[in-house]
Amino acid sequence: MNDGMPDSLIPYDEIVQEALRAVVGRVLGSVAENGGLPGEHHFYITFKTQAPGVDIPQRLIERFPDEMTIVMQNRYWDLVVDDERFSVGLSFNQVPSKLVIPYSAVTGFHDPSVNFELRFQAQEGIDGADPHDEAENDGPTAVPVEDGSNVVAVDFKRKK
């Protein structure tokens, strides 16, 4: 359906999503440089487990074949951040695991301590995600998201 607006020849939606994913990288980079999370900050990061460049243990892929959410709060180690991806050590049921996650695979980032949230469209070619359970890495239980003014949702619809 065309509402009278011409289709843009500039991929604004992709540019905005890439810029907002860079926010995730910048925040994680700051945490890595400073040696830990400041104050009460902690993160819930949701990502596509089958996205290109994701490297996680097979047992996690089997349990979360589409999408999973990890918690970065007290029990993480070896956070390494670059321009394209981050890697982090987390424990799942007392089993240490290394996860490598490109920013392009991230579909959500939430810092409940300040009610800040970013949500991203799934990459093209990946259909809408089915609801999923939390990854249950050894950390706190999920905190419900409250409606607040610090939520940024990027939800561009492509015209066909």
**Low-confidence residue ranges:** 124-132, 140-153, 155-160
Please report which band the strand proportion falls in: under 5%, 5-15%, 15-25%, 25-35%, 35-45% or over 45%: 25-35%
Task: Specify the number of helices.
Answer: 2
What is the arithmetic mean of pLDDT? 82
The end-to-end distance, rounded to whole angstroms, is: 8 Å
| Radius of gyration, CA atoms, in whole angstroms | 16 Å
**SS-based class:** alpha+beta
- Strands, count: 8
Element pattern in H and E: HEHEEEEEEE
How would you sum up the global shape? globular
Q: How do the strands of the widest beta sheet line up side by side? A: 2-1-6-7-8
Give your account of this protein's structure:
With 160 residues, the chain is an alpha+beta fold. Helix content is 18%, strand content 29%. It has 2 helices and 8 strands, in the order αβαβββββββ. The strands form 2 sheets. The protein has a 5-stranded mixed β-sheet, covered by helices on one side. Strands 3-4-5 form a 3-stranded antiparallel β-sheet. A hairpin with a 4-residue loop joins strand 6 and strand 7. It is globular. The N and C termini lie close together (8 Å). The C terminus is likely disordered.
